[in-house]
Amino acid sequence: QKEVEQDPGPLSVPEGAIVSLNCTYSNSAFQYFMWYRQYSRKGPELLMYTYSSGNKEDGRFTAQVDKSSKYISLFIRDSQPSDSATYLCATGDQAGTALIFGKGTTLSVSS
Amino acid sequence: KAGVTQTPRYLIKTRGQQVTLSCSPISGHRSVSWYQQTPGQGLQFLFEYFSETQRNKGNFPGRFSGRQFSNSRSEMNVSTLELGDSALYLCASSNPGQGHTGTQYFGPGTRLLVL
């Protein structure tokens, strides 16, 4: 079993839709959870960072972590064409080291 | 603040050669991590340097090595290149212990093509 599983998609939605992106992980020691957005031929850009369980909201983005089910989610409200990118979930058990990434979900938002 | 910078951005090498990639972290960040990204394997951790010491290492062969200088800039070296080393090499910096502990900020990457 891979440490972090993420559906690669692709996921296609119309502009304005609510998007749900999800990952599961296997190691209960993981405490740090992140979502990165990566545009084509660019480096990953940090979107959301969560420590332990709970929700975190930033503008149109909401990150959720459920440690009991080892499930992490990213919700995007009022999706825009500029949100079209690959979204990567990442997790780790120590601050600042050895992040383990999902393989990424490719999202396309059409206008 | 300037972001993480990586040089060169693109590189073409042939099998058997060696290559050195450079990374300058965000000012004040003392931890630098390197990752390899390929379509098949995704993002995989190579190693992490903190205060000039390798603190963590991923599951890559010894052909992959790195170092960090006193100004936190880092280099990674790949010797005896293989076709499978073609990838996007990403550097990420962080400052453990302050602010968003554990948050890593990535550079644009160096795209390496091995022929």
Cα(first) to Cα(last) distance of chain A is 38 Å
Rounded average pLDDT of chain A: 91
What is the assembly state of the chains in this entry? heterodimer
Number of strands of chain A: 11
Sheet with most strands of chain B: 7 strands, mixed
Tell me what the structure shows.
The complex is a heterodimer of chains A (111) and B (115). Chain A is mainly beta and 111 residues long. Chain A has no helices and 11 strands. Chain B has 115 residues and is mainly beta. In chain B, the strands form 2 sheets. In chain B, strands 2, 4, 5, 6, 9, 10 and 11 form a 7-stranded mixed beta sheet that branches. In chain B, strands 1-3-8-7 form a 4-stranded antiparallel beta sheet, with no helix packed on it. Chain B is globular. The termini of chain B are far apart. The model of chain B has no long low-confidence stretch (mean pLDDT 92). The A-B interface holds A 32, 34, 36, 41-46, 49, 51, 88, 90, 92, 94-104 and B 4, 31, 33, 35, 42-45, 48, 50, 55-56, 58, 90, 92, 94-97, 100-109, 111.
SSE blueprint and pairings:
The complex is a heterodimer of chains A (111) and B (115).
Chain A (H helix, E strand, L loop, with lengths): L3 E3 L4 E4 L4 E7 L6 E7 L6 E7 L2 E5 L2 E6 L4 E6 L8 E8 L7 E2 L3 E6 L1
Parallel strand pairs in A: 2-11
Antiparallel strand pairs in A: 1-3, 3-8, 4-5, 4-9, 6-7, 7-8, 9-10, 9-11
Chain B lengths: L4 E3 L2 E4 L5 E6 L6 E8 L3 E9 L2 E5 L6 E5 L5 E5 L8 E8 L10 E2 L3 E5 L1
Parallel strand pairs in B: 2-11
Antiparallel strand pairs in B: 1-3, 3-8, 4-5, 4-9, 5-6, 7-8, 9-10, 9-11
